[in-house]
Amino acid sequence: MFGWLKKLLIWFVVLYVAFCAAVYYFPQYFFYGPSAKPSNIDNARANGFNAEVVRYFAEDGTEEMAWYVKPSSKKQVIVFFHGNSYNVEKFYHKLIPFVQAGYGVLMPEYRGFGGVKGKITQKNLEEDALAAVRWLHNQGYKNTDIVVYGMSLGSHMAVNSVYQFQKNGNFAALVLEVPFNSLEETVRAIVPIPFPLKLIVRDKYENRYMLSRIQTPVIITGGSDDSLVPVKLAEDLYTYANEPRKIIVYQGGEHNTLYSFRNYADILNWLEKK
Fold it and tell me: Would you identify the CATH topology of the domain 34-273?
């Protein structure tokens, strides 16, 4: 009997160590899940999202790509950073109500996603986001003309971008949909096994400190039934935000269903009144 227990314990230790090593060395398979398939802008145009493809370069020389819609009745443009899966084509429908309201939209792609070349790391994705904001600056937009909108993983790109560029003044707004406080806390909230997360999760995606140093108005939306990024993480992040700030939790909302709860209408209303 004790021989079987010993073997079982050995197998548990082996699997535990193997899993920890896999998370450390291959985070792209656990935290990113990108679609390398290029986004098809014709599909978006056929559905009323009349964007154009723009290309520019990051500071490290990486060629970047984004979908861009010029503002119509408004001066402001929304830069939208999507989550950890798929590509920009998956998310354009979320921005249609904002385009219809007159806002411009820039939807940058990350390297390793949507046909953009490059390695997926926190540093690289942060640079992809910063390059998108620089492109807007080069088009003549000031921070006060830019609404920075991040969903899920993209919430970190949004917070980091505002934090890095706030020396040029506050942005028009910071919009965070189903955000998290840090990747380590997110994994801890959904995985009950006590893994040494501080050691094996190399990409930290820590948002709390940066948000506490931001003066741009912020709105957070989350779902009470989010099983991927539990809403308690968004609620914790909210405590670090400075005024003016607002949080909306949709009862029954899940990670990818807030559009069906018309969260865009609440965000638009807040943007008009803030």
Answer: Rossmann fold (3.40.50)
